[in-house]
Each structure stands twice: as structure tokens, then as C-alpha cells.
Amino acid sequence: MGETWIRTDVLVIGGGNAALCAAIAARRRGAEVLVVEKAPKFYRGGNTRHTRNMRCAHDSATDTLTGPYTEEEFWDDLLRVTEGNTDETLARHMIARSKEMLTWITDQGVRFQPSLGGTLSLGRTNSFFLGGGRAMLNALYRTAEDLGVQVLYDTAVTALEIEGGTFRCAEARASTGPGNEAGDREGDGAAPSGAPMRIEAKALVAAAGGFEANIEWLKEGWGECAENFLIRGTPYNRGEVLRMLLDAGVEPIGDPTQCHAVAIDARAPRFDGGIITRLDCVVFGIVVNRLAERFHDEGEDFWPKRYAIWGRLVAAQPDQIAYILFDSKSLTSFMPSLYPPIQASSIAELAGKLDLRAEALSRTVAEFNGAVRPGTFDHTIFDDCRTEGLAIEKTHWARRLEDPPYYAYPVRPGITFTYLGTRVDTEARVQMRSGDAASNIYAAGEIMAGNVLGKGYAAGIGMTIGSVFGKIAGEGAARHV
Amino acid sequence: MFDKDPRFSDSLSTDHLQEAARLMTVCNSCRYCEGLCAVFPAMELRRSFAEGDLNYLANLCHSCAGCYQDCQFSPPHAFNVNVPQTLAKVRADSYAAYVWPPAMRPLFKRNGTAIAGIAALSVAGFILGFALWHDPAVLFRGGSFYALMPHNVMAGLFGAAFLYMLLATGLGLRAFWRDIGAQSLAAGTASSLWQAMKDAARLRHLDGGGVGCYNEDERPTDRRRIYHHLTFYGFLLCFAATSTATVYHYVFGWPAPYGLFSLPKLFGILGGIGLIVGPVGLAHTKARRHPDLKDGAARGMEAAFLLMLFGTGASGLLLMILRETPAMGVALSLHLGLVFALFLTMPYGKFVHGIYRFAALVLYARETELQRPAEPPQDRS
User: Fold this and answer.
1) Is Transferase given among the entry's keywords (chain B) (predicted)?
2) Do A239 and A287 share a domain, yes or no?
3) A429 — phi, psi (to 5°)?
């Protein structure tokens, strides 16, 4: 098969928010831009498809934001969620630049709406995309296409030629055939099998995401238990481009063993279950493992704040599975989710349906019920409903499981994103291990998120990182033309 | 992947309703689309979905397809979330479910054929009627309509057809109103009616949340909304033409024909043009519509209604042009036959979408005001 040669000004690898912001920004500066996206068109955009909002600083309320969110407050929030695992210069730079993003993103055709439904707590800080992340992506793609940005779908970059800190060209291959339909549950993504391409460009923007869909890579940090992880986004986030950059001498940043893991419905498909498989009900009941034993204080904190600890906790349990149990009085207290809860008229029957030992589960529930102190239940505050005398107490929202039918949700760790990335400077240029900045290589989005978000998570911050550094990267890349 | 769900009723009577209930459960755990239209906020007020709820949501959907384009789980995703198509199917089924009299239900099965047949029969009926009533030569004389059919007979015949249409659609509406539980909120208040009139008049929800609606590809446009406006307001203008002419005749004693700049003529000409351009545009967009968004089974019904409207507008204009020629008699038969058939078949075709959608918008306005859902009656008949 002959090799196709392509020459362009700016090569953008990846197809999500960061990639498209970079492509649009570079194109608006007059550069010829080629976007190479590994996923087929429907699955384009990586994790952006599953996002819903972005967090930008703003000095006053707007049509869709209920009040001001100052740079200082944003910085305080970031410091708190990352526990200091952030590069202050980059983070403050990003926060300052986030202010103009609301306007800029709107100018690219993206529309916002006021926060509604179960997300009112974010109404002041976060801007919600009308129609969600895929709507946002669709708008960016329409704008990019109108501007003349070229997009290749189903095309995986297979090699990067980098000399010193200078990008020369990329090798890529289109994937062909039905194996590419991302129903492909096995997660090998698209095996590149089509015609090889050689893409020369004056600058490179790497915006190809993390490696959360690469189970083998996850195993390097988590061991065999990663086999039981579910991936919340597409099977295409395999980190190949990140690996190529690190192998070419780019300096890494972020803990290579860490990822953002929440507890999601164990019945979810291995990939791309998205938002609808999450479960917001830990605080309403108890959580037991395979041995029918409790293993953590379910009433430790409000659900959104402790969203990410339960993935990690479940990952540490045998077979990486756990069961959230509650009774009929809690059935409609939380956001509904995709799968129905497993239902039984007694705890013993529920144990049978969950394949747990009935006497062990009955004992755990009885001990818990016996330890519940009287109180006034209110899940919107730290109430006084708690247990007393258990090895692992439930410190708030503890109510007896006594009103049949009883319900259970099986949960497994659901991986959202990884923290390992490429170190960048405020120009979004990647840094080489030699200590110099690369001359024409930029990175944006999840592939460099670890610079700002070294740990933890705050709603909408991934999109801020993607948009801000995407635009900076695109503008920087266009200067090489 | 999708076991039976204890959260929603297992008494749903059709596959379409069950699929709609599954989707509403999926959508209710996502809610990303809540800013797009009325369907999703109405859905969020509910935890479970009875048939009445689903028929309400289905008729609230304007099929703009914004949610299909924006959904991360639409086909080819394994979750196969296709809200516009599923609600279109439930909607089409609901037209038959609420029809009066129920014996007419089979008319929806092969609606295109049925309506074409009724239309052809009534046109033929008028031609034959005129020919038998008079000397057949009167058909080819041109000039006055009333030589062919006295005004009182015409008014009586069409008045009766119109009243029958009102009765049948009214009783269908009553069944729908009851089934969606609108009475539980006493939804027919002046303010909810006014809100629904504004929403319907502007087609507020045929807009993908502000960008336009999607049809053949991922680029939203306002085409369907514009064509629908032309059709709807064209229809109203034609109706206004007939009504003013009736008032002229009976109140002022001014018999037809009227001059070019008279109200009946102006309304009729503008309305007729709307009824030609609008249905042609709608049929064109329908033909190009992405197959994922179409309810294949309802194609005949949509085509038949558009054709009837087009035929009404075109034959009306034709009649105006041909009235002094020998072709007048045939043109008049054609026009009267089509209008007669249009009225008779209105309760049994796509026309009812406007009635049920308006009722759904009224309930939606009321639910929005009260922030609680209607409760469909338990005892469904």
C-alpha cells in the first residue's frame, strides 16, 4: 500500500474540546489546520462527549450564571480539591484566561443554559452547555468546518518524529472495517489497518486525552484489579500519543498510577456508560462488599464532595465490587439512574439475588440497625442520624433498613480520567526532560491536565483546562506558520 | 442489558410505549437535554411513566431532533437512545387510540390510502352530483358557482362537514385530555391557554433550544419551522377567506364574486399560496429527513395530509383562475371535493397532531406553573 503524504501548517491530534479550541484558534490566526481524530465520527471528542459544563471565573452574574466567581475563589477551590497538587503559575494563568473563555466559546457557536435540575449547587460557578457536551462539540465542529479546518476521523497516529524538541512529522493510519464501531466492548479501539499516511506540519498540538481506556496501562498502577474497572468514556482514550511524547523525551507530570474513579453501576458496559450509570445513593443506605461487610463510613460527607472516594474504596475490595443497600423509604430520594435497583422483600432474599451469604448480610444489617441512634433525618445538612458502637460508624444520615422492599445497586469503580500528562509552560508548549521547552509542540486538555489538576476534581474544570490551553496552544502553533 | 424495571409500570400496552418508558428512564438519569424543549422538563417532574404520561410527552415533542444530535447515547451507541423517533411512533399510535368514534381506528392503519380514496370519492361525487342535478353541460359553462350549487346548499353541506369535524376532534381531544391527567391539575386555565397559544403560534419548541431544527444532517436550520408557518397560517387565511365571505353573504348581503382587493380574495390568495409552498416544503424536508428520525409507518399519513392541504390551496387558486372558462365546473368540483374530504378526514389523520400538541402545551404550561406533574387516571378504559 502506498503512503499518502500530507502537508499542513498545524497538526492537531485528538478531537475533543481542547483539540477543537486549538484548531479553531489556529485557523482563525490564518494557519492551515488538520485535525486527526482516532474515533469514528459518532464517538468523536473523547471525554468531552460526556461533559456538561465548564468552570470559568467571572466578575458578575450573567444570563446563565447566578453570581460572580472571582479568580481568587476559583484558586481557593482548586487548591482545596488538589490539596496543593497544582502548579500555581499555570493554574493562576489558566484561571485568569478562563474569564474570556465564556465569550470566546460562545463566539464559536456554543450555547449555554442556566443550571437546572440536580445541579443547582453549581449555578454560580459553572456554565452549562445547552444540550450537554456533545452539543458543545457539535457546535465546535461546525465552526471548525466552516472555517476550513480539515478533520480526519477513524485515523490513529502511530508514530511521531521528534528531534530534540522539534516535531517533524507524524505517521498515521486510517482504520477500516466494522471492527471500528465502538460497540467494540473489548476496548482495543480501532486497530489501524488502512492506508498509512505521513503528515508533515510546522507545529503540533497534542490534545489526545489520557489513557483511562487502556486497561494494560492502568494495571501498571493498580495491578490486576484494573481488569474489573469500568471506563466511563469511549474506548479510544488509550494514551498512545501521551506515550509517544514521553518516549520522545517530554517531561511527565502527574502521578502515573492515579486516576479519577467513582462508584458506578456494575451492570454498565465496559466503556462509555457515561453519566447515566452513576449512582448518587451511598448516603441513603449502607455499602457492603462481597463478604457482606461494611467497609467505610457512608455518612462521611455530602455525596458530590465525596463522589470520587467511593471508586477508590470499591477498587480496594475483593473482586472490586460492592453493593449499596437501602430500603423503600429512600427509593426516590436521589437522581434516578439507568438500571433498576435489585429488589427483594427481605434481606435474606436480597442476599440471594446478589449472590452474598444470607446470614452474613443479615448480621451486618442487624448490627447496623441496632446501632442507629434516634435523630432527625435531613440529607441536605449534616444531620444527627448516626450509629454508635460499630467498628465502622455511619456518622450522618443513618436510618435503619427496615421498610421492605429492600433494594441494592451493585457498583464497581468507574474510571473517568487519568492524571499523568506532559509538562507544559504558560504558552502550552511541552517541556522536555532536558529542561528546554519544545520548539513547536503544544499540549492541551486531559493530556496535560495534571499540570493544574494533580489530584482530585472540581466539576467542569476539565473543560476549562481544555478550552483555555486549547486556545493558547492553537494560537501558539499558528505562530510557526 | 435492560431488565424489567420495577420503577415503571409493566402494564404498558405496546412495544412503542415500553421503549418510550425505557428512554424516559435513561433520559431522566442524564438530563443534559433539559434546556432544549418542553419534553425534558416535563419528564423531570416524573419518576415513573404511565401510558398517559408517555402519550402526553410524545405529543409535546415537536420532533426538532435536537436531543438526537446532542445525545451521547443515540445510535450507534449500545444504549440506542432515539427519543424523536420513539416519541413519533408513540404519537402516531396515540392518534388512533383517542379517535372518535373508535370504530374509525382502522383508518389510521393505511391512512394515506384511506384519505386518498375518500378524497377521490368526494371529488367524483361533486362532479357526478352536478352532472346529474343539472344538464351535464352546466359543468362546462363557466361563471357563477351558484349555478352549479345554490349557496345555501353549499353552506349547509360544508357547515355540516365542518361541525362533524369539530365534534369528532373535540371528542378525541376530550379522551386525550382525560388520559394525560390534565384534569388533575385543572390545566385549562386562561394563563396556560394563553401560554400554549403563544408557544404554538411561534412553534417555540421546534427550535432545538434556539438553533433551529435538525432534519437531514447535523446542521440545524429554520426551514421546517418556516414551512410549517406557511402551511398553518395559509390554512388559517383560507379559513378566514371562507368565513369573511360567509359574513359578506349573510350579514351584508354581498354575494360572490368579490373583487381582487376584497378581504375574501386577499385572504384566499395569500392563504392559497401558503398552502402550496408550505406543504411542498414540508414534504421536501420530510423526504430528506434522516431515516433515524422517521417513523416509517406514519409516512402515508403525513403525505396524505400534506397532499390534502396542497390540493385545497392549489385547487382554490386554480378555481379563481379558471372561473370564467369552461373548466370552471370541473375545477369547482375538484376544490369542493377536496375541501369536503379535508374536513371529513381531519379527525382521522395527521391534522389531529395540532390538536393534541396544543393540549399538551396547555398542560405543560400548567405543570410549569405549579412545578408538579399531572396524574393520569388509574382506571384506563
Assistant:
1) no
2) no
3) -80, 135
The mean pLDDT of A452-478, rounded to a whole number, is 96
The predicted pLDDT at position A186 comes to: 43
Contact B115, B308 (CB under 8 A): yes
State the amino acid at position B88 in one-letter form: A
Q: What is the CATH number of the domain that holds A431?
A: 3.50.50.60
Q: Which residue of A has its CA nearest to B371?
A: A117
- The verdict on A167 and A187 lying in the same domain is yes
pLDDT at A183: 41
Between residues A100 and B147, which one has the greater pLDDT?
A100
* Percent of chain B at pLDDT exceeding 90: 71
* Mean pLDDT on A359-368: 97
Question: In chain B, what residues touch A52 (CB-CB under 8 Å)?
Answer: 32
| DSSP conformational letter for A158 | E
Tell whether A158 lies on the interface with B, counting CB pairs under 8 A.
no
**A223 and A332: one domain?**
no
Contacts of B103 (CB under 8 A, 6+ apart): none
List the one residue out of A284, A298, A291, A263 whose CA is nearest residue A411. Answer: A263
Supply angle C-alpha A366, A368, A373, rounded to 5: 120
Contact, A109 vs A143, CB < 8 A?
Answer: yes
Within A30-79, strands assigned E span 33-36, 53-55
The C-alpha cell at A65 is 450564571
**Secondary structure (H, E, C), B157-193:** HHHHHHHHHHHHHHHHHHHHHHHCCHHHHCCCCHHHH
Q: Which residues of B touch A116 (CB under 8 A)?
A: 31, 34-35, 41
- Say if residue A179's pLDDT is above 70: no
pLDDT (tens digit, 9 = 90+) per residue, B239-253? 999 999 999 999 999
Model confidence at B133, pLDDT cuts 50, 70, 90, reads confident
Closest chain A C-alpha to B64 CA, distance in angstroms: 13
pLDDT value of position A65: 93
Interface of B with A in 1-60 (CB under 8 A): 1-7, 25-26, 28-36, 41, 44, 47
Residues A320 and A368 reside in one and the same domain:
yes
Identity of the residue numbered B1: M
Predicted confidence (pLDDT) at residue A118 exceeds the cutoff of 90 = no
pTM over 0.80: yes
User: In degrees rounded to 5, what are phi and psi of residue B66?
Assistant: -60, -40
Q: Do A273 and A251 belong together in one domain?
A: no
Position A194 confidence tier, pLDDT thresholds 50, 70, 90:
confident
Domain that holds residue A330: 262-414
CATH of the domain at A335: 3.90.700.10
DSSP string, B226-294: HHHHHHHHHHHHHHHHHHHHHHHHHTS--PSP--TTSHHHHHHHHHHHHHHHHHHHHHHHHHHS-GGG-
Phi, psi of A15 (to 5 degrees): -140, 20
Q: Encode pLDDT of A417-454 as tens digits.
A: 999 999 999 999 999 999 999 999 999 999 999 999 99
Q: Which of A53, A106, A111, A130 to mutate to test the interface with B (most CBs of B within 10 A)?
A: A130
Are A352 and A425 in the same domain? no
Which residues contact residue B287 at a Cβ distance below 8 angstroms, ignoring those fewer than 6 apart?
Answer: none
Q: Average pLDDT for residues A358-367, to the nearest whole number? A: 97
* Nine-digit cell string for A167: 516535531
**Cβ contact B220:B208 at 8 Å:** yes
Can you state the angle between helices B15-28 and B83-97, rounded to 10 degrees?
Answer: 140
Query: Is the minimum CB–CB distance between A45 and chain B shorter than 8 Å?
Result: no
**What ipTM was reported for this prediction?**
0.91
Could you read off the pLDDT of A254-269 as tens digits, one per residue? 999 889 999 999 999 9
What is the structure's pLDDT at B379? Answer: 64
For chain B, first and last CA: distance in Å?
33
Kindly state whether residues A215 and A246 are assigned to the same domain: yes
